[in-house]
Amino acid sequence: MTYTQLGTLMVVGAVLIDLLVLRTRLVTRRGFWVAYAIVLFFQLLTNGILTGIGAFRYSDAAIVGQMPADGGPPPMFGEGRVVFQPFEDLLMGFSLCLLAMALWIFWGRRGVQRTPMSGPPIWRSGRWARTATPSPASADPGGTGDGKAST
What is the pTM of this model? Predict the structure, then answer.
């Protein structure tokens, strides 16, 4: 499977998961596209620089376009490139961002980790079986901590 086919499959899969499985419908919201534009700018900047200096090399058989025959840097635009990187990288980046944001919203709607807590995981400490009752000190958040009403 080529990088182009894999990237296209990832975009279709991420959009279907967003719309039909998780039902977050992020791709229909303006806020998602604004956030993605910000991510895209930095993706083009960092990946473009790293690809332009030769830190990343791609197989010509796996992507659209070809590397120059003289072994020089890839073209900035054209030959399937956008700011030196193959356009397939944009497909993968979009899929990863969409899926991460959709899962964040999906789990957030279900109250996963709504109140942050510190310490060991609850399944290790055995606290999951007990219900926490507030102590008098915690009932008075602005108080002295001794459970007595402040005057």
Answer: 0.65
